[in-house]
Specification:
alpha+beta; PmbA/TldD fold; 5-stranded mixed β-barrel; about 20% helix; about 35% strand
């Protein structure tokens, strides 16, 4: 019997107990995680940790009342107590007219193989060597004066879901990562920067030394940064920050925000919200994807969706509850924890690349700003107003020149989305990915 079989057996018994005790419906989740990480600073080990944990979550429903309880103890007596607590809570909470399990016909009947599990656990020595190589390469860059440390890690999580209306499936996923942060310069002129890499399979992880060199070179390039004058100009977003545009979109098209009427895109379904030719995809079935999953947190089948197709907004991101509020069908985007009800979330979200290289994208910019770092969350989700601290480089005659810090970039997401031009350099590095992006007509505030 596999670990997934054990989890499904445990959850099936738990759901059966809840039904026998009086629940009208129930579902349960089991998360088993294992992790190994090593951190070092200035060549000296700081930490080598192994973590193993498990969480069980039970949701019960009495009519239109639901309650969620969780535990890290899977002993039979503890699970009996879990059922008792859940039912006691469900009897006193307010009714939720939109709660409930999926209809039987909505449940996933097959689970695709997404190849998201590296079954081999790396030895501690492997992680130690990755962190060492990463930090040494970063510190070897001329101009680097200190290190904030390097870390390498590996993790595996096994996820199982059982519902009282017939769903019982599980899957496992893994992740490897390595990263470093270093400091360049001296005294008041110091600057820091970082880089990292992550992958499902250890063999697909970027060379740790290359990651370290990039971190060191980025920190050195930031030396002697200046505060810019305030003006309106074209802005280029580096891929390390361009994915923030996708996250702002995801928040604006989330089912709960639309149901509450608190999104600046609430009336824009089937309308042009991005420039023509822009396509933004959410693909939970991407092989080796960092956020891939074969079904959603409510047991529904999920699939690749173009949220933005040719610049047009095609759908909201919905779980069952928000879909019911909107009189629609779930898009299979439910995410789930052990101690909270399902809520909608994207998976592998990305913007398809354009046709111009990053150099071509900014070749005609006489005066612009290339953003490599963003700070703060100055986003008004109701109006779309946008204002964030930023750092990066001045663009002069199509070339990067002076490093810039203590700046603010501002605009409105409705206008920014319509003025985005993507480059051709899409790389899948995060759970949300975009190529280099150009947005004309934004405000840069400094002196």
């Amino acid at each position: 019997m596999t670990a997934t079989d054990d989890s499904l057996s445990l959850l099936s018994d738990l759901v059966a107990k809840a039904k026998k005790a009086g629940a009208d419906a129930a579902d349960a989740v089991h998360f088993c995680s294992t992790g190994l990480s090593h951190a070092q600073r200035l060549g000296a080990p700081e930490r080598l940790e192994r973590e193993e944990s498990q969480d069980v979550g039970l949701r019960v429903m009495l009519g239109k009342r639901q309650a969620i309880v969780s535990s890290t103890d899977t002993a039979p007596d503890s699970l009996d107590e879990l059922v008792e607590r859940a039912l006691a809570m469900a009897k006193v909470v307010p009714e939720d007219p939109y709660c409930g399990l999926a209809e039987a016909g909505e449940l996933a009947t097959t689970v695709p193989d997404l190849d998201i599990l590296d079954a081999e656990e790396p030895a501690p020595e492997v992680l130690i060597e990755r962190a060492r190589a990463c930090e040494e390469a970063a510190r070897a860059v001329t101009g680097i004066t200190n290190s904030e440390g390097a870390e390498a890690s590996w993790s595996r999580i096994d996820i199982a879901l059982v519902t009282s209306n017939g769903f019982a499936r599980g899957y496992a996923r893994s992740g490897h990562s390595v990263g470093v942060s270093v400091i360049a310069g001296e005294g008041l002129g110091m600057e820091s920067d970082y880089d990292f890499a992550s992958a499902v399979y250890g063999g697909e992880l970027d060379d740790p030394a290359a990651v370290g060199r990039r971190a060191g070179e980025r920190a050195v390039k930031r030396l002697n940064a200046k505060k810019p004058p305030t003006r309106r100009l074209p802005i280029i977003y580096d891929p390390r920050v361009s994915n923030s545009m996708l996250r702002h979109l995801a928040g604006a098209v989330s089912g709960p925000a639309i149901a509450r009427g608190t999104s600046f895109l609430k009336d824009r379904l089937d309308s042009q919200v991005f420039a023509e030719g822009i396509t933004i995809v959410d693909d939970p079935h991407r092989p080796h994807g960092l956020a891939s999953k074969p079904f959603d947190g409510e047991g529904l089948a999920n699939r690749r969706l173009n949220l933005i197709d040719g610049g047009r907004l095609t759908t909201w991101i919905m779980d069952l509850s928000s879909a019911r509020q909107l009189g629609l069908k779930s898009t299979g985007h439910a995410a789930r924890g052990a101690s909270s009800p399902p809520s909608p979330s994207t998976s592998n979200l990305y913007m398809e690349p354009g046709s111009l290289s990053p150099a071509e994208l900014m070749a005609d910019i006489e005066d612009g700003f290339y953003v490599t770092g963003l700070m703060g969350m100055g986003i008004n989700g109701v109006t779309g107003d946008y204002s964030r601290g930023a750092s990066g480089f001045r663009i002069e005659k199509g070339e990067l020149t002076t490093p810039i810090s203590e700046a603010t970039v501002a605009g409105n997401l409705k206008d920014m989305f319509l003025n985005i031009t993507p480059a051709d350099d899409l790389v899948f590095k995060y759970s949300a990915n975009a190529p280099t992006l150009r947005i004309d007509g934004m405000m840069l505030a400094g002196n």
